[in-house]
Amino acid sequence: MASNVNPTVRRRRLGQELRRLREAKGLTAEEVAERLLVSQSKISRLENGRRSISQRDVRDLCGVYEVDDHRIVDSLMQMAKDSRQQGWWHAFGDIPYSVYIGLETEAASLRTYESLLVPGLLQTPGYAEAVIPGTVPELAPDDLEKRIQVRMRRQERVNDPDRPLRLWVVLDESALRRVVGSHVIMREQLEQLVEVSKLPHVTVQVLPYDTGAHAGMSGTFSILEFDDAADSSVVYIEGVTSDLYLEKTNDVHKYTIMYEHLRAQALSAEASREFIAEAAKRHADAMS
């Protein structure tokens, strides 16, 4: 069973349950930390799923929360064990956004807004090979190859015949015009984008320049949703040195409203396909 376990999601679910137990006892994270002689930040990281949880951590916390039902304790201990398994992405070494990959792998749907580049889930190998070193210029050649492989592996979710990712992309026009790599690469990338957008579970909309000011001008973001009711939605904001994961209901609600405004301001799916096809033609014309 371990091979089917998503450690990121297990950690997240376990953290949510531990938070629920703490709050049921009326304890603060600081009070729990004092009892266990650990830092408050450790308790917070355990609860938000950003840190691996050992079975000993679970045992100690269950003791503080006075959990007497051995079935609950055993279940939490098993979740802790599962959370320490490795996902497929660990085979590629230290990937800085591995937490996100774990969430994306388990997500049922993903809504994303990109202002400058084609999203990784829809990139061609040529585009990825050009854009990754452009955004991370100090990357070693071996690490570049690993990131390209990871990016291509992530795309399996989009084409999964049994459980395809429901993907909705709002893309700024600048991502279509910026020449990443070469006009050849851009033409191939945009032509593929047109084809992928025809899939029944994929929607791509373009925000033209003449849209003017819009809700996405504060930055790119993604909203991940899950089939399991135990997994709350997550807003993901990528950073240079660290990433931000927002899970509070109010935060997710605000970004959801922002996304609805972006969808309303963007071209329709059909008009967007025509717009992207025209952009691909311009890159083709620039090659001659």
Lay out the secondary structure.
Blueprint: H1 7-24, H2 29-36, H3 40-47, H4 55-64, H5 70-83, H6 98-106, E1 109-114, H7 125-135, H8 141-154, H9 156-159, E2 166-172, H10 174-177, H11 183-196, E3 202-207, E4 221-225, E5 234-237, E6 244-246, H12 249-265, H13 269-287
Parallel strand pairs: 1-2, 2-3
Antiparallel strand pairs: 1-4, 4-5, 5-6
Helix pairs in contact: 1-5, 2-3, 4-5, 7-8, 11-13
Protein name: Transcriptional regulator
InterPro entries: Cro/C1-type_HTH (IPR001387), DUF5753 (IPR043917), Lambda_DNA-bd_dom_sf (IPR010982)
Domain HTH cro/C1-type: 18-72
Question: What is the compact description of this entry?
Answer:
The chain is an alpha/beta fold. It has helices at about 5-25, 30-35, 40-45, 55-65, 70-85, 100-105, 125-135, 140-155, 155-160, 175, 185-195, 250-265, 270-285, and strands at about 110-115, 165-170, 200-205, 220-225, 235, 245. About 50% of the residues lie in helices and about 10% in strands.
Provide an overview of this structure.
Residues 18-72 form the HTH cro/C1-type domain. Pfam families: DUF5753, HTH_31. This is Transcriptional regulator. The chain has a 6-stranded mixed β-sheet with strand order 3-2-1-4-5-6, sandwiched between helices. The model has no long low-confidence stretch (mean pLDDT 89). It has helices at residues 7-24, 29-36, 40-47, 55-64, 70-83, 98-106, 125-135, 141-154, 156-159, 174-177, 183-196, 249-265, 269-287, and strands at 109-114, 166-172, 202-207, 221-225, 234-237, 244-246. The protein is built from 13 helices and 6 strands. The protein is elongated, with a radius of gyration of 21 Å. It is of the alpha/beta class and 288 residues long. The longest helix is centred in the last third of the chain and has 19 residues, at 269-287.
